[in-house]
Amino acid sequence: MQIDPTPIPGLLVLTPRRFGDARGFFSESWNRKTLDGQGIALDFVQDNHSLSAQVGTIRGLHYQAPPHAQDKLVRCGRGALYDVAVDIRRGSPTYGQWFGLELSAENGKQLLVPKGFLHGFVTRAPETEICYKCTDYYAPECDGAVRWDSCGIDWGLSGDPVLSDKDAAALPFADFVSPFAWEG
Known about the structure:
Layout lengths: L1 E4 L6 E4 L2 E4 L2 E4 L4 H5 L9 E7 L5 E7 L7 E7 L1 E8 L1 E2 L7 E7 L5 E4 L3 E7 L4 E7 L8 E3 L19 H4 L11 E2 L3
């Protein structure tokens, strides 16, 4: 497993090795023992999988607040997407900064998004599937969103995005009060 830091502390890119032949490939996307050895000790309790039919679908920017905050390990199972995380840890030297990365079925990259980040993505291919592991269970009372176009993110859109009603009505970043604090 290749582990690369990003410019934002705690946000990591994980690229599993792929072993391929004429049939396709095999890849180990998560191995607790291997990652523990690299100082990444997470206990995933829930796996999520979503399908977005149209190119230009944005899901996000989402977070789950304490006491049910979630670390997420995100990958693309089919198609391609641009995955984004925004640091919302009050007091962090990178508060409000974002990082984006293309995740695709082809490149196999994963983004490890720690607690204290907004997360979202835009699809780059039709019928794109995203799969992600979480360290806490979904808790509707802790669910939150920030408006997708209020953090200065270059989504690379060529038209209007496809949004849920919840995402279209989300609070702008300027009005957001983060429930997370930097523990640097």
